[in-house]
Write a structure and sequence with these properties.
The chain contains 5 helices and no strands. By secondary structure, the chain is an all-alpha fold.
């Protein structure tokens, strides 16, 4: 692990690894079995029920944050890997690198463009044409031009093309 990782990150990783193991699941099943077996001892009282309700509520509450942290890390890592594939693929549009940062309207524009490409490819297959080429997108209009105020807000890094230009 990276020495620069926060205590929270290291703890979250450790707990996530432990909580996903079969032995942890069996421990939880064992605790529930013990709780069930003690029911007659406590006359199935409200306090007896409160113990399991409180315990499971606390664990569930904490696990929500742990799961969200794990999901966030996994999502960022996956996005970076996909971005690297786009960046390294000749003919791929670098303007697609950070789509997850765009608003719904821009995403919808891109989705419609790619749906149109898929539709044309399926129609071509029905006519016996190959669908393995790399056609241009209709127009990468979902992003503001590089010189606009919105374009300057998200500056392109070295080697990135103007997002509004077709590759």
């Amino acid at each position: 692990m990276d020495d620069k990782s926060s205590i929270y990150t290291r703890t979250a990783r450790s707990i996530a690894q432990l909580s996903g193991r079969p032995v942890t699941f069996m421990l939880a099943v064992g605790l529930i079995a013990v709780w069930l077996l003690t029911g007659p001892l406590f006359g199935f009282s409200d306090t007896w029920q409160l113990v399991i309700n409180t315990g499971t509520t606390i664990i569930t509450f904490l696990m929500v944050f742990l799961i969200q942290n794990t999901q966030n890390r996994d999502t960022v890592a996956m996005q970076l890997k996909l971005d690297e594939l786009i960046r390294a693929t000749k003919g791929a549009h670098n303007a697609l690198l950070d789509l997850e940062e765009l608003d719904e309207t821009a995403l919808e524009t891109f989705r419609a463009q790619f749906e149109a490409l898929a539709r044309v490819a399926r129609e071509g297959r029905l006519e016996g044409r190959d669908d393995t080429d790399t056609p241009e997108t209709v127009n990468l209009v979902a992003l503001p031009p590089a010189g606009s105020a919105a374009g300057r807000k998200k500056a392109s890094g070295p080697g990135q093309s103007d997002p509004s230009a077709k590759s």
